[in-house]
Amino acid sequence: MINQLISLSLKNRYIVLLIAAILFAWGFYSINQNPIDAIPDLSESQVIVFTEWQGRSPQIMEDQVTYPLVSNLQGIPKVKSIRATSMFGMSFVYIVFEDKIDIYWARSRVLERLNYAQRLLPEGITPTLGPDGTGVGHILWYTLGAKGIDLGEQRALQDWYVKFGLQTVPGVSEVASFGGFEKQYQISVDPNKLNYYNIPLSQVLKAVKSNNNDVGGRKFEMNGTGYIVRGLGYIKSIQDVENISIGTINTVPVRIKDIATVQMGGDLRLGIFDENGEGEAVGGIVVMRYGENADKVIHAVKDKMAAMQRGLPPGVKFKIAYDRSDLIERAIGSVKHTLIEEMITVSIIVIIFLFSWRSALSIIIQIPITVATSFILLNAFGISSNIMSLTGIALAIGVIVDNGIVMVENSHRNLSIAQEKERL
Questions:
Q1: What does the DSSP 8-state code read for residue 124?
Q2: How far is CA 210 from CA 93, 144, 254, in A?
Q3: Residues 6+ apart with CB under 8 A from 288
Q4: In CATH terms, is domain 2-33+328-423 a member of 1.20.1640.10?
Q5: Residues with Cβ < 8 Å from 3, sequence gap 6 or more?
Q6: pLDDT of 235-265, one tens digit each?
Q7: CA dist., res. 371 & res. 365, Å (int)
């Protein structure tokens, strides 16, 4: 079989050279298309289901949220294991699928089951899916340098401007905000005043909810002009909250400010984010989607930051806290440098030991063709260019030329024997 293959290749040398040229061109194209990262992504195909129920203990979350979800998610096909954890006001369910399962197929199967499982949960509780990212998807952390601006304003700027802008970058799954205060209207009800006016707390909650809404009306025409009637009722200031009517006593309205104090404050925090011991900061974590090119996504995020900088208030700027692109470029650059050095070293050794440029060329030409072709297989199997994959290619260079050296040496030996026979 091998003799026939060698004979066929020698008889069709130009076809063999054409195939080699096509493989090299295809491999060179694959090098540019292959995702670049510092480390291989060995995380499992996992879907996270997150449920929030404010103020409930871990035991209640376990009994009324986590257990019903886990019980109904177990019948999903291709599931390897399901893990769950319950904590104060939050429930996390981790559905781990078998290897090589498409993550978006897995997410759609989980959503199908959640549509049924949600009926088993308490009223008003809606489970949501986590971002379609992996454990190594945190590619960039940033903070907002905003001297003179309070933490509440910084968090509002992050949540309502920066976050939405960065989420439009291709390859970004989520931008998670951290630090600062999430601004909210806080109503501190005096129970003694509630008892005095004989108003239940549920009535206060209902009044606040119903008075924070826009109401649409119908259209009417007057003098050939159409008008749309609507009621504008969204809360815009503390005074709007204070003037909400919650009932009447002898035709006199009782308002929020009569039974409570209203203030603008921050939501409950479980921790703070301190930057280099210089004080609290506000920022975000950029999470990359499955299978994306980390280096490409990071550069796209930085370009978006530069474009968004013009829309930030004066004195506010982005500060990069963690940037994986530095690690990626330095790690990949180091391996590439070693790879090139090894290729040159092997080529020199082959030329010296064979002492025939034609024989050496037939071996050396295998190195770039084989290396380029390996990237075709990396793309086919979804493997990125990282320290592990490039190091494997570098270690295989010796094996690449080994077979060629053996074949050339054997050819030289057979030619020498044939020449000796002719001489005799």
A1: T
A2: 34, 36, 16
A3: 133, 134, 137, 138, 139, 171, 172, 173, 294, 297
A4: yes
A5: none
A6: 888 899 899 999 888 888 999 999 999 998 8
A7: 11
